[in-house]
Amino acid sequence: GWGVSPRGAGYTFGQDVSEQFIHTNGLKFIMRAHQLVSEGYCWAHEGSVVTVFSAPNYCYRCGNLAAICEIDEYVSCNFLKFEHAPPRGTGTDVKRTVPDYFL
Fold first, then answer.
1. Contacts of 22 (CB under 8 A, 6+ apart)
2. Taking all residues of the chain, what is their mean pLDDT, rounded to a whole number?
3. Most buried of 40, 43, 87, 95 (most Cβ within 10 A)?
């Protein structure tokens, strides 16, 4: 079923709702975002819903990984996980140069 979000900013939905939505719309799964998950992505509802979060170390304090998802022509998912960039001044800064074709 449906419920009010614990934050009061929206709604939650149960596995019954996601399965009905997938069936009605002829989908394979639901991909959602904008919710922190520690490993960058997280499957729920027995593999019918996946949450993808693309902000590593959210708010500079959560220590979470980020992920992006590549979906192929067979609707198979490949998740790429990322850690946050190292802090500035640690000797790993990327040197930005202007390519020759702009000169």
1. 28, 29, 30, 48
2. 89
3. 40
